[in-house]
């Protein structure tokens, strides 16, 4: 992990006026969330890869960077509203301390990663969506690892379907 580091998160938080102690506490919480056993893809490696893409994009924005860190903070493979819950997680843990336009922009950008919502065409929203979905245009071996990881995250759907348990969510697997 070269990009998803405590140092980077602290620097981002300092630029936004968040105290180091608060930033470190939130960072530890995020690490715990992104390390949950159910996360084979939506984990810290995904965040690290996205931060790498942001760095290479040449379009730096603290709002986009915060949104990358928080966009999958809450993740339930069959859950609805993960993005809204992740935006709320940001609001409760960091947004209260940065306030104003930055907090509003981060929450908007986290919500932009919800594939069920309409796109606004705003450049920063397009950027985070492109970065989030960049795995789809990756090298074949990276894409194959992505497929395997996502299948693992949704394995409970497959097990339930094999047992004849109906699901409220239809999942299209590549």
Question: Structural class per helix/strand content?
Answer: mainly alpha
Averaged pLDDT: 90
Overall number of strands: 0
Distance between the termini: 27 Å
Instruction: Provide the CATH top-level class.
Output: Mainly Alpha
Assess the beta-strand content as a share of residues. Answer: under 5%
Note the total helix count: 9
Taking the sheet with the most strands, its summary is: none
Using only CA atoms, what is the Rg? 16 Å
CATH architecture grouping: Orthogonal Bundle
Series of secondary-structure elements, N-terminal to C-terminal = HHHHHHHHH
Compute the number of structural domains: 1
The name of the CATH topology is Hypothetical protein af1432
**Anisotropy-based shape:** globular
Helical percent range?
55-70%
Low-confidence runs of at least 5 consecutive residues: 167-174
């Amino acid at each position: 992990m070269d990009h998803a580091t405590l140092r980077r998160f602290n620097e981002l938080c300092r630029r936004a006026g968040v105290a180091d102690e608060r930033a470190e506490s939130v960072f530890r919480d995020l690490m715990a969330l992104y390390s949950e056993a159910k996360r084979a893809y939506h984990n810290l490696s995904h965040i690290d890869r996205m931060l790498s893409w942001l760095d290479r994009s040449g379009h730096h924005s603290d709002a986009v960077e915060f949104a990358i860190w928080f966009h999958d903070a809450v993740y339930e493979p069959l859950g609805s509203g993960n993005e809204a819950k992740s935006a709320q997680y940001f609001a409760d843990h960091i947004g209260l301390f940065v306030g104003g336009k930055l907090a509003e922009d981060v929450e908007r950008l986290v919500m932009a990663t919800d594939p069920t919502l309409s796109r606004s065409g705003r450049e920063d929203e397009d950027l985070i969506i492109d970065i989030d979905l960049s795995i789809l245009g990756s090298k074949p071996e990276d894409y194959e690892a992505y497929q395997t990881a996502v299948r693992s995250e949704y394995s409970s759907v497959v097990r339930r379907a094999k047992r004849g348990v109906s699901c409220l969510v239809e999942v299209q697997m590549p």
